[in-house]
Write a structure and sequence with these properties.
Chain lengths: 291, 173
């Protein structure tokens, strides 16, 4: 299998990339590691006239703590997240999630930001972004936009990005105080799409929940933020009953479909069980953090 | 468009359309047919090569993305007539039957041992989790990689500082 013919540009600077996209953005696809785009090109689900390979842009492969967040450059790969000491300390749930993505070889090429922009409803990073309340920074020649994760995903493979924009970094807010997270995923085998996956990130103040983020993978037309479940936890002491109720609400927010990986009813119940387990794990981890 | 890269230590170049996949460039243009095409959907790992010493699926890399980079294929493992430790490991432990997945398995194994000289069984199984074998049930592949680790440790004890496969084929890096 090989893709339909396309023009190829590998700009050496962000400025050059943005100029190309200003001119030809409507007919172009931006490629970082290519681990989602190249399969689509080969299947000819995507037939752009131009591929803009940003893989050679300088200084976009850093993870750094800055102000109130950890900034992850657009070319940071899944394997870099897996091995990042910075993220292991500031957002360990991301390291846990990275290990679930595809397989080690794909993780050597694919990037976090590329995966977020690809917006596959079965993608893992979308749920992680929602659970953290992350921000996505987009640049074009007209300037910079900072987009909230919960406004970013529109539908299957669709985001609010404009054709002339490139995502330059993703920002993960730093927790103040005791925080913990968990990423749980059910997959049939390594490298398969998720049957269901769940990202949970909580923060405690004393014994009460001061922030809760829950993202759901592969159970709807996009990654879903389980808003009602999050709200039910706010200000509460996370007893078994409170957790069970949040898990029930999260399952209600899921909109799965029957497919080869399971029935809709089964997937909804996996959401419930995973959110319940994930919350218990995340809260346990938050309690271990020394305030 | 023109593309140039280092393959198994030698400068190679060609003129390809941007849509040409790295695996096809290696197999068709350079006639290096040791790199296999299995699923062609980045699931099976038969097309594994090392890109700057890291294993990747060459059916999901464009040849133009490898411009200026260093590639190691299975043909680059042996040093002249001497098999590399990973190849000896697969030979000694019967780490293959049909042989289709073997180039990928050996490259993943070799790259694992560069980073982790003494991997546990779990670390080996984790490293090869993107590579599918339909014959062996993986038992002997795991043993083969362990065997290679032992051979490398023995060789290191004899002559410390010996160049590694990736260093030898990466050339001037």
């Amino acid at each position: 299998m090989f893709p339909a013919a396309f023009d190829y540009r590998a700009p050496a600077s962000l400025q050059e990339a943005l100029s190309i996209l200003k001119e030809r953005g409507d007919d172009a696809k931006v490629m970082a590691g290519g681990q989602s785009l190249i399969p689509l090109l080969k299947l000819r689900f995507a037939r752009p006239e131009l591929v803009v390979d940003i893989g050679r842009l300088p200084s976009m492969n850093n993870v750094m703590r800055r102000g109130g967040h950890t900034a992850i450059g657009a070319l940071v790969r899944h394997v870099d997240v897996e091995n990042s000491k910075e993220l292991a300390s500031s957002a360990p749930m991301m390291v846990e999630a990275a290990r679930w993505i595809s397989d080690p070889l794909v993780r050597n090429r694919g990037t976090l930001a590329g995966s977020v922009c690809h917006a596959d409803p079965a993608g893992d990073w979308g749920s992680v972004m929602l659970a953290f309340g992350a921000e996505i920074v987009a640049r074009s020649l007209s300037g910079e936009r900072v987009l909230r994760a919960d406004e970013f995903f529109e539908g299957p493979f669709a985001t609010v990005l404009k054709p002339d924009e490139v995502v330059t970094e993703v920002r993960i807010p730093l927790a103040n105080g005791r925080a913990g997270g968990a990423y749980l995923k059910l997959e049939r085998k390594v490298g398969d799409f998720a049957t269901v996956a769940v990202a949970v990130q909580v923060q405690l103040e004393g014994e009460k929940v001061s922030r809760a983020g829950i993202g759901l993978t592969a159970v709807g037309p996009r990654n879903i933020k389980a808003t009602d479940a999050e709200r039910s936890l706010m200000g509460q002491e996370p007893t078994d009953r409170v957790i069970a109720e949040a898990a029930r609400l999260a399952a209600e927010a899921a909109e799965p479909k029957d497919d080869v990986r399971g029935s809709a009813a089964y997937k909804k119940d996996v959401v419930r069980v995973f959110v319940q387990r994930g919350l218990k794990t995340a809260i346990g981890r938050a309690r271990e953090v020394k305030s | 468009m023109k593309v140039a890269m280092k393959v198994n230590g030698a400068e190679r170049s060609g003129d390809v359309e941007p849509r040409v996949l790295l695996v096809d460039f290696l197999r068709t243009n350079l006639r290096l047919t040791g790199t296999h095409v299995g699923c062609d959907t980045s699931s099976c790992g038969a097309c594994t090569v090392l890109l700057d010493a890291e294993p990747v699926k060459s059916c999901t890399v464009l040849a133009v993305q490898a411009e200026g980079r260093s590639i190691t294929t299975v043909e680059g493992l042996a040093q002249g007539a001497n098999l590399s430790p990973i190849q000896v490991g697969f030979h000694e432990e019967h780490g293959l039957q049909c042989g289709f997945c073997t180039p990928g398995m050996m490259l993943v194994g070799a790259s694992l041992l560069e980073r982790n000289a003494k991997p546990t069984e779990e670390e080996i199984r984790w490293a090869i989790s993107g590579n599918i074998c339909r014959c062996t049930g993986y038992m002997n592949i795991v043993k083969a990689i362990k065997h290679a680790a032992m051979l490398r440790a023995a060789a290191d004890a004899e002559s410390p500082g010996r160049p590694t496969v990736a260093a030898a084929t990466a050339g001037g890096e």
